Amino acid sequence: MSQHQALNKLGRSGNPIIRSIAFQDKVSSSEEKMSLEGAVNKTSIMLFLTVMTATISWNFQGPLMSIISMLGALAGFISGIMTFGFYFFFVGWIVKPRPHNAPRTAPIYAIGMGFIIGIISQQAESFFPGIVIQAVSLTFFVATSLLLAYKTGLIRPTQNFMLMIFAATMGIFLTYIASLIYSLFTGNHFLVITGNGNMSILFSVAVVCIAALNLVLDFDIIEQSAEQGAPKYMEWFGAMALMATLIWLYIEILRLLMKLRSR
Amino acid sequence: MSYLTLFLGLIGLFSAFLFFYLLKFKASSKQTNRGNRIRWNSYIPYKDKKPNKGKKKS
User: Which residues have a Cβ under 8 Å from the Cβ of B11 and sit 6 or more positions away?
Assistant: First the structure.
């Protein structure tokens, strides 16, 4: 009996609670099951919606579009919280994850984020011509490289890997929040975020690495959910998680390229 | 448009196609057949909440 078969037969944990029926992997057979192909299709739909709205906000700049983009970003943020939940250190889950909301929130997220990405990209392109093509290309290049590494088993996400990435992501989030609060009082952001010095570039490289490693967790969510026959709405959840990370990675790569080109 | 931008654009286009193509395939057994995988279903409670709003009451 192979190790995998033995683990499946006996259960992966000796803990009776974890081995109980509440944590069994399969869902009832009457429900429609998630598939890898379905998750890919949903990711394609979301990418199409994001690119479409980004194109609109790129081409129709003005005060009205700025308001629409701000509302779009807000809608995207709320959709994200309604689906992924909101966790904070020492407090725990402030809003619990609700993956069954994903079929409704994912398209709103894609459309909303598209508007704000269009404006950011257009601004960057006006200062540094050609930078958007470079950022988009690098984003897909990094994502494909990591996908290849994940599918072949070169990178194997474990519990410790997840905790490390989660802590680093929260750290970045807190740094951005602190910078935002600091700017409300002083009018300046932290130089390590907006500057173009060596430390600032090093910080951006680290953030790009963390954002890229978050992709590995998204691939694992999609792969495992499909493997375990999760409900159909998990396709939207996986696609939304992947798109959120791709958007974050794109913005960080764009920021890094802007820092490098402004030196 | 500089040659670097054109070159990166072509790499990006190829990468995007490859990304969506590879995403459809199952991961290797090296990835899936191991005991230290993250148990996502204990973090993402998809079994607790089922979308049954469409069900009629009898």
Answer: A137, A141
